[in-house]
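INTERNAL TRANSFER SHEET
From: sequence group
To: structure group
Subject: ADP/ATP carrier protein

Please process the attached sequence and return the structure record in the designated field. Keep the field labels unchanged so the import script can parse them.
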Amino acid sequence: MAGGSKLSPFGHAIAGTGGAMFALTCTYPLDIIKTRMQVRSRTAANASDPNVYLSTTDAVQKILKTEGLPGLYAGLLSGLLGTASQNFAYFYWYTFIRTGYVNRQPAGVAISTIMELLIGAGAGALAQIFTIPVAVVTTRQQTMPMGERQDLMSTAKEIVDEEGWTGLWKGLKPSLVLVINPAITYGMYSRIQEVVLKAFKRKDMTPGLVFLVGALAKILATVVTYPYIMAKVRLQWKPSKKDAETHKPYTGAIDVLRRVFEKEGLKGWYTGMQAQISKAVISQALLFMVKDQLEKYTIVLFALLARQKHHKVK
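Return from structure group:
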């Protein structure tokens, strides 16, 4: 998102949203698996339960056996809507805030790395505040049994009826904390890049090294923030009718972490992380690959629309 880009904030938002929706569609089964593993505690007593997954492979096999292929795409519509709205909001606010900041600086003054990260965090926080209701609905649809699963609007209505409008903003606090993930990724990337360049005695990075270093940085950032990712999902989750009898509602992210640790130990904080990392790395690569192409097409489209409008005025 260079300052000299020809695209407006709206154009960046369209390209970013298109790339994110494509990436989610390709990796959605991993998202389903990650979410279900995060909310279902795994113990020796329930290891044979078809709703408890021992690994990503085990999850795929059990979902296909009990729900068929549609089970791997449960809640896809709301997931795409949530991704579209969140990424549109993020790319719009990022470009809007960044452009406003740059325009207020003296000519020729480059924006600092710290400010880039702060702008990204601010844009991420704004995006979360406006779009988290769709994420809550998606989590519910992904984790409810087939017999209890409803469509997007019915699920949203049920949440409001049971918990009030604030129920649609469950998990907002950990979501706001998680906007630091890009900053951690960037910091890790910079440090790893220094080590790699020194180790290979190079002055610049090849495309292959950029991808590998970026993937490793993303993995490390995910490891650092994953317990909070898990806590956010558990706050948004609603137990099935069978589990609701014995489940005590969580009071916050710290309560989630404490109770999961008491029941499963430290490994409970990282249940489903393999699927999360796979999804994060693949999505990141697909997002930027598709986004770059969409930005080119969006520039051409906007130019054609502007030319058509100019001819009509004449």
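Handover comment: The mean pLDDT is 83. Residues 124 and 238 are 25 Å apart (CA to CA).
Transfer complete.
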